[in-house]
Design goal:
It is a single chain. α1 crosses α4. By secondary structure, this protein is mostly helical. The chain contains seven helices and three strands. The protein has a three-stranded antiparallel beta sheet with strand order 1-2-3, with no helix packed on it. The protein has two domains: about 110 residues, Orthogonal Bundle (Arc Repressor Mutant, subunit A), CATH 1.10.10; about 45 residues, no CATH class.
């Protein structure tokens, strides 16, 4: 069953709305105009969402942003993207997963606020599941490059009763959560 998606033409400076029908890997442009409006879509809401998506895209790495724009907004296939980015085809799927994951992470706060979604952490990460997560994030972000994780692991154990056995858990939390 085809999915209908509302997006914007990323290659132009002004906002253009493009209604696309996505079926498997094919994207067919149905309409592209300046004044697109729909009974079910509030134009102010659409502008807010597009603005937030643009800000989130700007926070991605250049390669991830390029992939998202080429795949989702221009409808290019994996082989076309691999050729344009100068990467092997077998590496593009990993780039896709990483780019979408980072984009979801960047948009998570906005989605929770905008749509009043009250969600529980789904990760098995002990830091994400902690009620003191904000304080712990500040502690982790305060670590200097030349310092080891030992002191932070000890603080987590003594103050927050969180047992971390390897620094990889903290590094993964910092990078992906």
């Amino acid at each position: 069953m085809p999915a209908v998606r509302l997006s914007f033409c990323a290659d132009e400076r002004r906002v253009l709305f493009v209604e696309k029908v996505t079926y498997q890997n094919w994207i067919v442009d149905i309409a592209c105009s300046n004044g697109y409006s729909s009974d079910t879509t509030d134009s102010e809401t659409v502008r807010e969402i597009i603005s937030e998506v643009r800000r989130a895209l700007d926070r991605l790495s250049p390669v991830e942003r390029e992939f998202i724009e080429r795949y989702y907004f221009k409808g290019e296939s994996y082989p076309e993207i691999a050729e344009n980015l100068g990467r092997r085809r077998d590496r593009i799927k990993g780039l896709h997963i990483r780019a979408v994951g980072r984009l979801k992470k960047e948009l998570a706060g906005f989605v929770r606020r905008r749509f009043n979604i009250k969600s529980k952490p789904t990760a098995d990460c002990p830091i994400c599941n902690s009620p003191d997560r904000d304080e712990i994030d500040v502690l982790i972000d305060g670590k200097k490059e030349e310092e080891t994780w030992r002191e932070i692991i000890q603080i987590l154990k003594s103050k927050y009763n969180i047992i971390i056995k390897t620094p990889q858990i903290l590094i993964g939390h910092q990078k992906y959560h």
